Amino acid sequence: MAFLEVEDLGRDFPGVRALNDVSLKLELGRVHVLAGENGAGKSTLVKLVTGAYRPSRGRILIDGQDVDQHPELHRYVAYVPQELNLFPNLSVAENLFLPYDRAKLGGATVNRREIERAAQEYLDRYAITAAPRDLVRDISVPEQQLLQIARASTNHDMKVLFLDEPTSSLTSTEIERVMTVIRGFRDSDHAIVFISHKIEEVLEIGDEYTVLRNGEKVADGLIAKIDEPGLIRAMSGAEIAIDQRFRPDPPPEGAPEEVILDVQGLSGHGFENVSFRLKRGEILGFAGLLGAGRSEVMQSIFGYMKATAGTVALNGKDFPLGDTSRSVKAGLLYLSEERKLHGILPQLSVRENIGISILDQITGRLGISRRQERSRVHDIIKAYDIKVASMSQQISNLSGGNQQKTIIGRAMATEPVVLIFDEPTKGIDVRTKAEIYRIMKSLAERGVGILLVSSEMEELRKCANRIVAMYSGRITGSFDTATTSNETLVGAMFGSEKTNAA
Amino acid sequence: MQRKSKLAFLRNQMMGVLIALLVIFAISAVMSPYFLTSYNMTVVARSLAFVGLITIGQSMLMILGELDLSLGVMAGLCGVVSGILMVNYGLNPWFAMFLSLCLGAALGCFNGLMVTSLQLHSLVLTIGTAGIFGGINLVLTKGVAITNIPKEVQFLGRGDFLGIPVPFVIMIVVLAVASWVILKTPFGRYIYAIGDNTPAARMLGIKVDRVRILVFTAAGTLAALAGLLMVTRLGTAQPSIGETWVLPPIAASVIGGVATTGGVGTPFGAILGAAIIGVIENIIVLFGVSPYWQGVVSGFIVVLAISFDSISRRYFRGNR
Q: Membrane-crossing residues (chain B) (predicted)?
């Protein structure tokens, strides 16, 4: 019998039907994949089952009992959110076991040595190299992500574990560690709900699947009986060519080569002596491991971080660094990988979020023209296919993919000269990914210079004409995408210096 | 669609406060026959004007995500300095007032510069600068009021314009200008953006530090204006001016829908909040509540007001 059952579940928000008529059965010892595009209702479903929201319709049964009458049943459900949700100033051990009573540790007082010893067991099990007494803010992002999963498992009552994109900022070796952990849970008779946009992972780990689209269940079944195109079709409701290329076409033979951005000998916090040239019409990719210094290089070019040495020339003219407002005025824009931290203005509306970058175009003698702002924003919402109930909607109520499209649309409204995309498709579904690739391609072909930082080799190969590899703050190679093998690229990402065609 | 969303904006941000104010107004009018007399109304309006000017500055700082606890003592210091310049140095009173306004701007700017250049927390910094400004006030006056403020400027504090107290008219004009700036200009939009998410604002190329310094400067200037008006109202420059103007503007802003964490609210809402506090204080006096109990009652009502606001907000969650 199913341990957790969801029957005809629905939840409404003012003006939006976020989830409607969804039924689901979770059995112990199985991995259930919850698939769907951004905004399909996955997060809403998770929040209902974990008790963060109350359902508008339908019911949830755990162990045969209605959760609404027995809210204490929620203790069987653990949830690991996509965003890091730890206490940065507390130690690894404290993070693992808080609240202590849930972990059945300690009474009125807590013995630090005891919890550190207990913590070490968990750290070993998850192959986390950090020490129990390290502060969480000092350990790496992948370790933090693993720690979050480990923390969920310290709940002794846990029977059902929801993992929301547990691998979004991990590299392949770390992803393998997560997969091992998930298999461990499965084999010890837990039910796992796995949410991911990475189709290979889903197919590898899942037993059953449920696909949501626009808040409704559109498909379910056994993973063994579905393949990648089938799953994507179910999620998007359309056929998407997943191996399509989005590299801009090279300029015609004999056309003069124009360098838009020329970076020479740039050094700063976390990187050293970085030089490269971005040509008009191309997408230049940046490959590397987490912490290779790619984001730091980009943020220094943009002026958000300080550069200690080196020069940057924009369209042949020396470009002084260190002032974001000068960069924006010159058309040099940076779209951060940290959408929440560096991108959106969370409490403001979609209109204000987009309008903020075009204010000088829509301000007359009487101030900002609401009418012009509305019509410009309306055009952008349309052009980038941003799904909103109305432009007065608060941006934090949009799905991640739509927030990302809003930010891209906002950048486009300013007619950029150089655009830096830092992990533009992190946590974004397959269809929206393809849309973003298409936008990058058409921009490059219109003459906008594009730098693309990505941890996904696939993404770089699909989009970039050339790829620069970085390792530990230095450039280890520059490659022509079409003529370079994956092995060479990965080698450079791990520090072996090689170059074919500069 | 445009019409509907405008109404939604009103409903969510201001309507609650406005209704609360009207209800309190109605209750007061029913319970005390003196409340609605024109004399009492001018009393309420006049005292609202002084705190109101501080509230406008403070609310803009709060929307920006900052706070200035020295605005009250700044008002006192600027008032006292204008008195010294007029009376002790015999300066033209208008010129003296102009210099005090400049002093207010300079002190506000100083706070802003400290916050931006040293990346200090404005709350803590202004506890310190409030001590400095208040101390200078006492050094200059030795705690003694400066009397004989020239008659020609006293109408600013005491006079009426079409039956409305002049300070109130000035406050309304300032409110109109502040509302226009914050709602209709790019500069105002930047204030919201910075208060909502400072790193994102910097990423958007907004000159974050410049906006901050300017708003601190504006708030300082308004504090000086409030102090000056109080001097002309009293006819003497009391060193104690502004002592009670520190916390009520913050409470008023919160009641009026300004988030302490920044990014949300309007100066207009904050003034409505200040009006609620003003009316409550007035009615307490009219009812003859013992002065010893006045603090308890008005404090209790403030707690009630923000609790009501928080509960109603949760009720309409996700629908700003």
A: 12-31, 43-64, 71-89, 95-115, 122-141, 161-183, 211-232, 244-261, 293-311
For A264-303, what is each residue's pLDDT tens digit?
999 998 899 999 999 988 999 999 877 788 999 999 999 9
d(CA A500, CA A488): 9
Alpha helices (H) in A206-322, listed in sequence order: 228-236, 294-302
Residue A347: list chain B partners with CB under 8 A: 196, 259, 263-264, 320
Does residue A501 carry a pLDDT above 50?
A: no
Res. B4: pLDDT tops 50: no
Here the ipTM equals 0.82
CA angle A353, A358, A359 (to 5 degrees): 90
Is the pLDDT reported for residue B166 higher than 90?
A: yes
**Segments of chain B assigned E as strands:** 160-161, 164-165
Domain A4-236 has CATH 3.10.180.10: no
Q: Choosing among B183, B184, B204, which should be mutated to test the A contact, i.e. which has the most A CBs within 10 A?
A: B204
Angstrom distance (rounded) from CA B260 to CA B171? 23
Q: Which of B15, B28, B8 is nearest to B309 (CA)?
A: B15
Report the alpha-carbon distance of residue A341 to residue A324 in Å, rounded. Answer: 16
Taking any CB pair shorter than 8 Å as contact, residues of chain A touching chain B are 13-14, 302, 304, 324-329, 334, 336, 341-349, 352, 355-357, 359-360, 363, 366-368, 374, 390, 392, 394, 397
Give the H or E element holding residue B116. Answer: helix B93-117
Amino acid at the residue A163? L
Q: What is the pLDDT of residue A415?
A: 85
Question: How does pLDDT run across A427-442, given as a tens digit for each residue?
Answer: 777 778 888 898 899 8
Cα–Cα distance measured from residue A384 to residue A382, given in angstroms and rounded to the nearest whole number = 6
Which has the closest alpha carbon to A367: B198, B179, B266?
B179
Contact across the interface for A304 and B1, Cβ inside 8 Å: no
Kindly report the nearest CA distance between residue A334 and chain B, in angstroms.
7
B108 vs B111: CA distance, rounded Å: 5
* pTM for this predicted structure: 0.81
Q: Which of A349, A356, A406 to mutate: most B Cβ within 10 Å?
A: A356
| Alpha carbon distance B247, B261 (integer Å) | 16
Quick check: bond before A166 cis, omega within 30? no
Residues in chain B: 320
Q: Which residues of B touch A14 (CB under 8 A)?
A: 316, 318-319
How far apart CA A123 and CA A119 sit, in angstroms, is 6
CATH of region A242-331+416-502: 3.40.50.300
Q: Is the dihedral of CA A433, A434, A435, A438 positive or negative?
A: positive
Same fold across A4-236 and A242-331+416-502? yes
Those residues whose C-beta lies under 8 Å from the C-beta of residue A386, and which sit 6 or more positions away, are A350, A380, A398, A402, A405, A406, A409
Contact criterion met (CB < 8 Å) for B184 and A357: no
pLDDT in tens, A165-194: 888 777 777 788 888 888 988 999 999 999
| Facing residue for B184 by CB, picked from A328, A334, A368 | A368
What distance in Å separates the CA atoms of residue A460 and residue A452, rounded to the nearest whole number? 8
Domain ranges of chain A: 4-236, 242-331+416-502, 346-404
Please write the tens of the pLDDT for every residue from A81-122. Answer: 877 788 989 999 989 888 776 666 666 677 888 888 888 988
* CB spacing of B203 vs A367 below 8 angstroms: no
- Least confidently predicted of A242-246, B209-213, B292-296: A242-246
pLDDT above 90 covers what percent of chain B?
66
pLDDT in tens, A344-387: 999 899 999 999 989 988 888 888 999 999 999 999 999 888 88
